[in-house]
Task: inverse folding
């Protein structure tokens, strides 16, 4: 029941949305890694809100402050601790949810689990704000992976009824992923961006929110890492990915499209190319038998609509045990997808770094 | 990189498809649990092949033989070790895959990972045969869960183009799940069975195979178990579920259907019923903030078409490094779904037992 | 290779002796625990240096600053993060050890392990200063344990040639342990304190240091917790205890005195007392078969002489690969025992809390 | 609370003394290791009883039967499962302990912990017989270590009042350890053997038993493995060593002799020898800051007198809750030390293999 993950690279995340600070400890990082802080800040800026109408106007001027594990910008091999002070918090906005749980949020089960002692302001420890330290840690993981020739990148595959062009599963390149990672609104087909923004705006004006799918890929992994039965690449990445609030599904390669497929169509054959064994297709998303197949890892995650909406919703008062109606004021994203892209990349990067570190 | 899972109830699975025996050790079981062996055998029989045309004609007369941890049919609290002898193995059927990896199987990455030392006969340790000890362990987990009022059950939601009626996510009952668990071909709408069998037969005759979706539910869990960030119910169940060969996606509640949904439609509100807090809908599949919400857990997994088909496929000869064509002889399931139902139930039961044991 | 410990209560410790801050994250604490901060500060003060001539004159005005997991002095159930700023650091004192490893310290193996990237100032992450967050976490663990009727306490059993009266292994009481915990110089027989102080002073004046033994007890544990084979109470406590710098041995009950003993003398029999099963003696230190026996846990740890002494020692210059002589300037304890008492108590309290939390 | 240990090489031990079989699963072994079974059998024979008057006359013709993970005598990389059938069991001998717990044994805490459901015959899962699979696993670990230039060996340092010559901590060699491992009665000074045998015989004739110390060393480890704070070499080895029944203390280097030592005497300096950094002494037993120092690992463990003796002892009847007297019939070792030597070696070998595998 913990906020700790990883076997070799152990990430411990702490903090509450409206507490004094959030942060993380990363234990097990290799020593001697020169960190590029501008790139770390850039990754965190991609996740930060307030950029445009798709996200909450809450401004987070998040400066990660490193307390240990780094000297002269280089990792020492000791645990790297980082904190981010919470500055722009308006607790008043949330005072009504102490007694009335927000639908589709963690509020009610957390109230039961912690006997009412948990910090409910802004979701407390369950807030999406806790993805900030994940992105910090993921940005470091990405730099270490790149030094080993591994690149991770993601894009918005779908928002509501608007879809981006999916990755060519067997042909996605590091260059393509790097380009995507540089975008604030990460889509493969730039023409799709405005359509997606329009879709989000439609829901925003309706005091509503909308879900979507993020597709993520990793190229450059060695073949045969991961496995066996209970240590599959799929299972290990999923455990971290489901740690991102709003993620409700994870699939690899064709995923749920395998349901209506047949083997002749979708089996991934082999061929010799330039003297090497290559896959002729990559419907399995780069993982076979729980191990990397040599093709790119391609996965996608389902993201539910932000549950916080200003429209009235049915809830209950936990003190009076009466039905009631809740209108969530405050600042919320009508669509979390654009900001979730670097979070998904980070989860995948951390998972892969942990897997290849054994 | 291990075949061990669980934090409190630790399952260690061993064996190869054509080795001497397969089995498992379950560590951490409570003492004093009277086991109903007929029910364990019944669960294992549901998974066993050879029942009809949907599965391989390989007959496995699998008798789980318990070596430790049980006295007079009651758990002692010491590790429970169980073995199943492999009797009906025909290694000759697989001799050609030593050098030619089967498409979409573990063969190639395992060959790289283990430097050619792994047992390749029938997939070795990566064979779906290793789901037999999972079902054994799951059958025990189900009995312990039932003593706590928790019931797990599953059905075939889809095979190719044929769909069963999905669970009423907020209304599925223990009785319904028990009924499903008693069926050899588990579907909610019995009229669907013949259509699904016809669908499978179509692919079988074409020397092909077909995928599908299994939907699984668990009712009776206490509210507020699971979480926090990296110990979500979703993540922990996924890690075990991806340990089932051919599983390529896991989703909770609406899962990927959240992508085109909006919050007004899909948010799960609350109401007071009989003096208790209840959800007005269960689109989140019983999990909020990684914790149980009090509504049934409802998840589904995507299963790819059995990769072993008798039709010719493109592969390579790892010795000569030449392209070649492979026709997989031997006994294979044209559709693994019917037999996979008890395996999915077992994975979910084991995961839930582990989660509620803390 | 981590600074993380615990299965249910996970403690992650971070920081370097001369870095910006040290601290910890405690994950898995129960919610709703009202913390007594004065007692936490008191425990930390017992460990803090500068009290008298037995310890380094380095003044640490250590104020633990809590960042998360506590509201209104009560645990929320979310990870509790705490930092202590390093204020009184004199890096200059240690500049010579960059190239010349201090004998009997972590310097040389850390230099090899981290390729010279580790923070060497004051031992960096390996500094005994990192026991401050351990004591903070232990002070919280002790409060939770006390609410369950479990008391932990320790005393200096030996310094050099001076010995204190050992615990009555089968009769030590909570009251006795509480009294010991209130002492800055924890000995059972107060007449021994001055003798021990004289012993330390003798070595201090000789620019030398001296070792000793700390004995620790815990009363009030339920019978039958701990075990099985690889999860013994002894093994789990030892793993944490060896995390304290300078600890080189751990023994339970008679420990190494069992070597010259025979069963007739030392077997712990049973008798009925007040209708309950009691042990007639407790030579096994409260642990049988790796589980608690119902008698007090009694263990002792060997502490080596502080390796930092001002006398000249043989070492090497890692740059020139020449032999050299090292005189360690700076502030050091001629005997670490008095300050190590609360650290040992903390390690034992954390271990016991983790064990009884399953 | 498990019988599972290890992070990278995961050992799961199962079975009861008088059950059908005991055994283990070793998960995470490298593939392609050619096993020398004669050496495995030889190690197991060293542990087997019935060799002479120092041990129980119970004959165990223990044949380890491998079920998986090995093909043609070579590891496949899949979990290696092994069972040993229990053949020579006389349950009648133990029937009286169902209700009367044996002093200093696991009986009473296990009865409480498992609610009376545990297998009590011969100690059940807590029997020293479970060290047979440990030795099997350790014999494999030793072979893998040797292929990396690492040798582990041990000897009886003390039985009662008779002592062997201790290891030269900084000079012990692989040759010396190999020689010791070939002896059935492992002592450095062969003249000591008869004295120790006489000491044991004295206690045997008195229906008594005697304790002792085993000293173990490992040479050839790389410098700088192990650590950080909670993953010290000392802590990790201790957790496994305390899994050996009767072990009550573990110390490294001088261990408890550090208590009366001073830094000038015992600090381990450095010098350049043949162009390499070497320690001038090894009082720390090869571990500094939790990491290997480059000098041999030298540790010793305290072993208590076998608690099973035929003399009458005070106990209670758990049914009637009356005091009673117990005379333990059956076959027992008057001194476990000779047979425990390969068990200690195995625990150390397994621990080191796990540590260097990260």
Result:
């Amino acid at each position: 029941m913990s906020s700790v993950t990883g076997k070799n690279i152990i990430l411990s995340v702490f903090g509450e949305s409206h507490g004094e600070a959030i942060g993380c400890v990363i234990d097990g990082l290799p020593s001697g890694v020169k960190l590029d802080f501008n790139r770390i800040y850039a990754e965190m800026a991609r996740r930060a809100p307030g950029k445009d109408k798709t996200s909450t106007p809450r401004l987070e001027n998040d400066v990660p402050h490193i307390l240990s594990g780094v000297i002269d910008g280089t990792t020492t091999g000791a645990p790297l601790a980082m904190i981010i002070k919470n500055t722009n918090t308006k607790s008043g906005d949330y005072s009504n949810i102490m007694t009335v749980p927000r639908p589709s949020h963690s509020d009610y089960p957390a109230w039961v689990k912690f006997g009412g002692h948990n910090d409910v302001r802004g979701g407390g420890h369950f807030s999406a704000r806790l993805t900030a330290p994940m992105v910090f840690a993921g940005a470091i993981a990405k730099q270490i992976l790149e030094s080993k020739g591994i690149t991770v990148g993601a894009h918005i595959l779908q928002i509501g009824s608007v879809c981006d062009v999916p990755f060519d599963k067997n042909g996605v390149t590091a260059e393509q992923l790097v380009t995507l990672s540089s975008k604030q609104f990460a889509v493969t087909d730039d023409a799709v961006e405005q359509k997606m923004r329009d879709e989000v705006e439609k829901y925003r004006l309706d005091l509503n929110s909308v879900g979507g799918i993020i597709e993520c890929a990793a190229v450059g992994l060695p073949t045969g890492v991961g496995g066996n039965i209970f240590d599959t690449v799929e299972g290990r990445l999923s455990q971290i990915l489901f740690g991102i609030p709003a993620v409700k599904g994870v699939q690899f390669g064709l995923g749920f499209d395998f349901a209506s497929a047949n083997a002749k169509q979708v089996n991934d054959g082999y061929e010799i190319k330039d003297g090497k064994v290559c896959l002729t297709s990559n419907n399995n998303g780069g993982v076979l038998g729980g191990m990397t197949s040599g093709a790119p890892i391609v996965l996608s995650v389902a993201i539910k609509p932000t549950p916080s909406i200003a429209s009235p919703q049915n809830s209950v008062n936990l003190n009076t045990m009466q039905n009631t109606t809740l209108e969530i004021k405050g600042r919320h994203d009508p669509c979390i997808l654009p900001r979730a892209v670097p979070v998904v990349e980070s989860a995948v990067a951390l998972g892969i770094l942990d897997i290849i570190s054994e």
User: Anything to note?
Assistant: Helices of chain C lie at 37-47, 107-113, 131-147, 174-181, 191-205, 233-241, 263-266, 337-356. The CA atoms of residues 47 and 339 of chain C lie 5 Å apart.
